[in-house]
Amino acid sequence: MSPRDRLSLAGLVFALCALFPGVAQAAPLGDLVVTPGESRDAAPVRIATSAGCPKAADGYVATMRGAGLPAEGLVIVANSDVGLSHDHAFEVPVALTFKDFAADNNVTFSGKYELALSCIDSFTQQDHGGFTGTLDFVEPARYVALGPAKGPQRPTAPLVVPVDPPAPGGEQATPPASGNPAPPASGDPAPPAEQEQPAQPQAAAPVQTGGGQPLLYIAIGVVGAVAVIAAGSFLRRRRSTD
């Protein structure tokens, strides 16, 4: 390779380095708060910035540096813009637990590790500053966040991840939480009301008669007939004597 070619190659490398400086040269912007501030390594972790990213940044990436990890840092939050804010602090979840990171990278965490979230241009990867915090693994399976990085033991609010609005005409009605049907939209015919079925009359229970009741009715009839005949004879005798 001629000296001229070497000079051209060096110029090209310099230009690429200037265009893609990477995230390792992050300028300090503030602190990174870790939640839970002290916990076992199997706990899900969130990291929160102390302020918003610069306007020039449209994304962020988070890394972890320390013993047993790559020199450029282990990526714990991949390049993303979910929840990014330029006006105030924001919070993002760490991709895995520290226990999972240790297993995936065949490392035992011990001592102090630096967490860093860098505000970047997602296309060129240009760094626009970052936030840092320090963890101390006092035991291989337990860490303590140091200083300003120590957040609460549990999240104080649910992590709200914004979603893109649905495309026009593609909205789907969400069924109501209760068991009642949703009211019809304006202009839609109301569904027919369910007709109540008339109550079916219940048949009267048949009267059960005992076996001796017909004989009783016959005896009463005979006695009545005899009484009528006797009364008629008595009246005829009385008239004949008069």
From TrEMBL:
Map out region (Disordered) in residue numbers: 148-207
Does the record carry Transmembrane as a key word?
yes
The keyword Nucleus belongs to this UniProt entry's keyword annotation: no
Cleaved signal peptide residues:
1-26
Q: Which residues cross the membrane?
A: 215-235
Q: Where is the composition biased (Pro residues)?
A: 181-192
Q: Which UniProt keywords apply?
A: Membrane, Signal, Transmembrane, Transmembrane helix
Segments of skewed composition (Low complexity): 193-206
- What is the superkingdom listed in this entry's lineage? Bacteria
> Per its record, how is this protein called by name?
Secreted protein
Which species is this UniProt entry from?
A: Saccharothrix espanaensis (strain ATCC 51144 / DSM 44229 / JCM 9112 / NBRC 15066 / NRRL 15764)
